[in-house]
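Ticket #4471: structure export looks truncated?
Reporter: QA, pipeline team
Priority: medium

Steps to reproduce: submit the single chain below to the structure queue and open the exported record.
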Amino acid sequence: MKVARVQQTGLAAGYQDTGRPGWRRFGVPTGGFMDGHSASLANKLLDNTHNETVLEFALHGAEIEFLQDTWIALAGACSSQLLKAGSARLVHAGESLSLSPAPAGIWTYLAIPGGWQAQTWFGSTSTHSRSCIGDRIQNGDILKSCTNRLAPFESSVVTRLPTNDHTIDLAPPPDGFPILPGPQYSSFPSRAQEALTHQKWQISSQSDRAGYRLQGHPLDLADEITSEPVLPGSFQVPGNGQPIITMPDGPTVGGYPKIAYMEHRTLWRLAQCQPGSQVEFRWEK
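Actual output as written to the record:
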């Protein structure tokens, strides 16, 4: 069923679900939600399963016009005049949702009952633009639903949602992001091990779904290594000494030494740090 038309994609837009686990050995990144907490909340607000396909938007500027009456849920960084992030409501044909600038966060998720319709590649609908896997979203595209059900399953949702506060804290943790030693941690000089957690790093504007680049005082380098598997959350240190944190769409193998690793339970929050923001890290005990 045709549900909406894309008036503006904003900086970037794509379909996302939980991704493609199990394909990394073939060079296919896992992909999936940049912020799984917010995406799951958007689905939960409509009684969807956590893996239903949602629309993921980067920063503000996206505008969606609805062609049918439908329930929608919004979660993540941005709000709109129709509804704030962390809430759901019934919208009518002809209404439009425009994402406003957010004080914190990058990624915003829009859900409908039953999920958005998109092609499945390697068991997932997630868009991976670099490899041309998954459907891309462009201005003028007509968006469809996976079902004719455009209202939540449980009638209680209609009365429950407007009164509850479902906000998620997207700000960096005040005591720093917890990290663990990476595979080549012991190969780095002690000065580098200390410098990683004893300074503030700035998120580079060159960051994207593949990797977040940090800018700060360069780290002393470790010895070169042979290319090996790279997991999301890995802190790779290239020749300029400025770490690159591998994100969901990042490479599956790499030849840069990895000084640290950030677990999936924390990586989503780092993903919401806007370019130019400052972050700190601490070694987890």
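Status: closed, not a bug. The export was complete when the record was re-opened. Leaving a note from the reviewer for reference: The chain has four helices and 19 strands.
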